[in-house]
């Protein structure tokens, strides 16, 4: 399920939203490395609670597309590359983007509400944990019909949560809030009655 066998062109064709998000994150990171321009890109985009409190509300969104370094970027984009396609295929393009974006946004909103004014963060982790949360909702609905999904994704979710609390310099609030947000949206989107409606519309 999470083993990618597509070539580059197939991957872009089958999973356009995931591909666009990966490309956008990489492009913004490259821009952030350019002298002068990079300082402005990062300076105007990183999530800083004290600046959000001053009215710079765009910082609730922009940190989703910024990363603290190459390893940070690679780790998040590899997770998106690996786990995003299956959810995009199941949920559809718009629903997948909604899960990703709202989970990332809520991660930053809760970070602003819970963490101190001096707290600063960047990264797509909250959005990616939203993907995990949506998968958890799917597991809830298919626990009796698709046990292999539960066996595959739940250990990944558990390990990711454990690592969240064990590693340093991790925005725990964004991770947990993103996952809970993804789970709630998944419970709504993947409800059996809605899945049935999707299938009926596809047959028309």
TrEMBL record:
Membrane-spanning residues: 12-37, 57-84, 96-114, 120-141, 153-170, 176-196
PANTHER family given in the database record: PRESENILIN-ASSOCIATED RHOMBOID-LIKE PROTEIN, MITOCHONDRIAL, RHOMBOID PROTEASE
Protein name: Rhomboid family intramembrane serine protease
UniProt domain Peptidase S54 rhomboid: residue ranges: 55-190
Single annotated GO MF: peptidase activity
Location (main, coarse): membrane
Organism of this sequence: Viridibacillus soli
Signal peptide limits: none
One BP term from GO: proteolysis
Domain of life: Bacteria
Family under the similarity heading: Belongs to the peptidase S54 family.
Matching Pfam families: Rhomboid
Compartments, as annotated in UniProt: Membrane
Membrane topology designation: Multi-pass membrane protein
Alphabetized InterPro entries for the sequence: Peptidase_S54_rhomboid_dom, Rhomboid-like_sf, Rhomboid_protease_S54
Gene3D superfamilies: Rhomboid-like (1.20.1540.10)
This protein's UniProt keywords: Hydrolase, Membrane, Protease, Transmembrane, Transmembrane helix
């Amino acid at each position: 399920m999470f083993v990618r066998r597509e070539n580059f062109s197939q991957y872009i064709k089958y999973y356009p939203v995931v591909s666009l998000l990966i490309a956008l994150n990489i492009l913004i990171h490259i821009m952030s490395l350019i002298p002068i321009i990079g300082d402005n890109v990062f300076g105007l985009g990183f999530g800083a609670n004290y600046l959000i409190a001053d009215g710079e509300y765009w910082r609730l969104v922009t940190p989703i597309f910024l990363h603290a370094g190459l390893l940070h970027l690679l780790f998040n984009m590899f997770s998106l590359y690996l786990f995003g396609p299956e959810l995009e295929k199941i949920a559809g393009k718009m629903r997948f983007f909604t899960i990703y974006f709202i989970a990332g946004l809520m991660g930053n909103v809760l970070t602003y509400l819970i963490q101190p004014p001096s707290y600063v963060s960047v990264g797509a982790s909250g959005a990616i944990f939203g993907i995990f949360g949506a998968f958890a909702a799917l597991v809830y609905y298919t626990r009796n019909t698709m046990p292999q999904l539960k066996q595959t994704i739940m250990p990944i979710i558990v390990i990711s949560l454990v690592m969240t609390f064990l590693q340093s310099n991790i925005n725990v609030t964004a991770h947990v809030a993103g996952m809970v947000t993804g789970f709630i949206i998944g419970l709504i989107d993947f409800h059996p009655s809605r899945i049935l409606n999707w299938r009926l519309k596809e047959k028309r």
